[in-house]
Amino acid sequence: MTPDHNDLWFLPLGGTGEIGMNLNLYGHDGQWLMVDCGVTFPRPGRVAADGTIHHSGEPPVQMADPAFIADRRDQLAGLVITHAHEDHVGAVPYLWPLLQCPIYTSRFTAEILRRKLAEFDLLHRVPIIVVETGESRQIGPFDVQWLALTHSIPDPNALMIRTEIGNIFHSGDWKLDDQPLVGHGYSRKTFTDLADEGVAAMVCDSTNATVAGHSVSEAALHEGLLQAVQSAQGRVVVTCFGSNIARLHTLGLIARETGRYMGLLGRSLVNMSAAARAAGVWDAADRLIAPSHLGYLPRGEVLAVATGSQGEPRTALRRLAAGTHPDFELEAGDTVIFSARAIPGNEEEIETLIGRLRELGVTVITAEDSRIPIHASGHPAQEELRAMYQWVRPNIAIPVHGEAEHMDTHAGIARGCGVPRTLVGRNGDLFMIRPVPGMRRQIAETGRLGWDKQALVRVE
């Protein structure tokens, strides 16, 4: 199955009908463009979007099966990574040997990607082309432009994919944050200009399509986090997503304001902060101390930021709760702040972790408990989706990055904004944008691969 010069196709192999392991293909004029290549972390007992039930013993890291495009890798013009979250970039070291194409991405994402590739001894084999926001690159028959949007990580980009027969706007993960604190912002004119040019289809994030209103800005979290830290007597441990450099910036400021020393606990946090420095998006005023020093400080002078907000095994917060962390032990009167919300499916693990912390006499503050915001989502709520549709005015809306409920709600929002046609499908469906809009169900075989004992295995 090869698109000819009259065809413009979208074919998701992962991330449509589910949240995680994004892998998207665009086809035109005999070639394919891949956008994103991510992983997911299954939870035993959790029902996946395709109805399968995860069980213990599965590989802990899983990704979309790329067999369709791996079998056609001579037609693969390149891979574009929109941002550095694991569900968009994490599968590259595992799958690149099957693809062997150049990779195009932003500076911060390239820093993260290089660290991942080095662990697999692939760093000097993989061609990485760093692209600046606003720049365009010709990748096979696709003219791809990187467009500034905001998300919960530095340097996220939407894409305008131009071809001779039509244009596609691919949103990536995004929100409309007027004060993102770190990295580039966004401009309404960027997207209204796209409408003037003409957009055949908009392929867009559905994660928070069921959430009314507008997402909270990163800048709005300072007050709530400051109050929580100021009211604490002992050590303070904040757990959040390690990729949120803006959140680390806010916590660094709060550490200075409250006379505490900030240290990072967890490999992903350390890697992200190092990448942020290398990419020039780390605030020089944010001074970190070595984690090994935290245990020697007076308890009231400690502000630790730890991985493990989703209750994941082997993370720093889990080890603190178990009393097995090498740097210090939590004691009664210490405080743990969850500056994150549960990803669906992780609720049970998080509740178990919170219960263990409370058994130790630790005060636990969650985003749900807090009177004022201490966490902000990185995805657009309904007002933001409506704004983007009013700006871009596509002929076709294609919701992705969500389960069925999210995508169906998203499609209703698009129709309410006057979009003439919506196409809602799932992994393996072929979305035909040109010459005649429509869908063909389950054209490509899909599935999951897992990484087990240094090899890729099929996950049943």
UniProtKB/TrEMBL annotation:
<feature type="domain" description="Metallo-beta-lactamase">
    <location>
        <begin position="20"/>
        <end position="214"/>
    </location>
</feature>
<dbReference type="Pfam" id="PF00753">
    <property type="entry name" value="Lactamase_B"/>
</dbReference>
<keyword id="KW-0269">Exonuclease</keyword>
<dbReference type="Pfam" id="PF07521">
    <property type="entry name" value="RMMBL"/>
</dbReference>
<dbReference type="InterPro" id="IPR011108">
    <property type="entry name" value="RMMBL"/>
</dbReference>
<dbReference type="InterPro" id="IPR036866">
    <property type="entry name" value="RibonucZ/Hydroxyglut_hydro"/>
</dbReference>
<protein>
    <submittedName>
        <fullName>Ribonuclease J</fullName>
        <ecNumber>3.1.-.-</ecNumber>
    </submittedName>
</protein>
<keyword id="KW-0479">Metal-binding</keyword>
<keyword id="KW-0378">Hydrolase</keyword>
<keyword id="KW-0540">Nuclease</keyword>
<dbReference type="InterPro" id="IPR042173">
    <property type="entry name" value="RNase_J_2"/>
</dbReference>
<keyword id="KW-0694">RNA-binding</keyword>
<dbReference type="InterPro" id="IPR055132">
    <property type="entry name" value="RNase_J_b_CASP"/>
</dbReference>
<dbReference type="InterPro" id="IPR001279">
    <property type="entry name" value="Metallo-B-lactamas"/>
</dbReference>
<dbReference type="GO" id="GO:0016787">
    <property type="term" value="F:hydrolase activity"/>
</dbReference>
<keyword id="KW-0862">Zinc</keyword>
<dbReference type="Pfam" id="PF22505">
    <property type="entry name" value="RNase_J_b_CASP"/>
</dbReference>
